[in-house]
Amino acid sequence: MATATRRIDVLAKPKSVHPEHSDDRRSVYWIDRKPIQPGPGGTTKIVITGRVEELSKSKDVNKEYVYHRPTPIWEVKPGALKATASGRVEQLSLHKTYNRHQMERPPHTTVTEAAKSANITDRLENLAKPKNRIDRFEVNEKEWGETQPVSEAAKKARITERVESLAEPKQPHSQFQPAKPIMWEVSDLAIKALASLRLQQLSRPRSRTMIKDDYDPYVVSRAARKAKATGRVEELSEPIERKKRDKKV
């Protein structure tokens, strides 16, 4: 029992604050460190390292860098003005001709005399005839134009008792009930029914005979005024140390 009591005492102690814990800022305008102060001359002097000073210098231009041309007009050299083209250059400069070029055909074509007097062969006449097709909705067809008649064995076939029983429609369940209509008719028994004494007692609203007209629910009782908190309750009611702050005067 003593061990349990000591364990409870340990658990009852408040949690200790970590030594590296830092309190929250009391204001967003607070700073962690003081700003740099001006020197004796009235100006702020910052000491930089050699590396920072080297990086602050502008980058040198490459020796092979070519600047933009000052104007889009190029001057033709005298040598280019007096130059003469070779035979190959003159040959390449000539316009290329295309001998097989044909103009677009007109929308109205003329039938030649040979086409007018041509005679067709027997094969073309057979191909030109329309194909005889039976109405697909009257005859059972496997594909377009291919009939599939019923065989004699299928016409004389007889079904078994099992197949005949499976072909019968399924009967509804014996306890099946259709959907109830939207409008229900109240029975005569329900209209003439009388509530029992117990139902009448339960249907009454709760009586408040004990409440007086001058009753005030916000009045504190005398027992609550004289009550004193225990030491443990006072200890738990105190704020945490890190949350305590002095009031500004």
Automatic annotation (TrEMBL):
User: Which residues does the annotated region (Disordered) include?
Assistant: 1-26, 226-249
Q: Write out the biased-composition intervals (Basic and acidic residues).
A: 231-249
GO terms, biological process: spermatogenesis
Determine if Endoplasmic reticulum is one of this entry's keywords: no
Q: Does the keyword Repeat apply?
A: yes
Arranged from A to Z, the UniProt key words for this protein are: Repeat
What is this protein's name? Uncharacterized protein
Q: What is the lineage of its organism?
A: Eukaryota, Metazoa, Spiralia, Lophotrochozoa, Mollusca
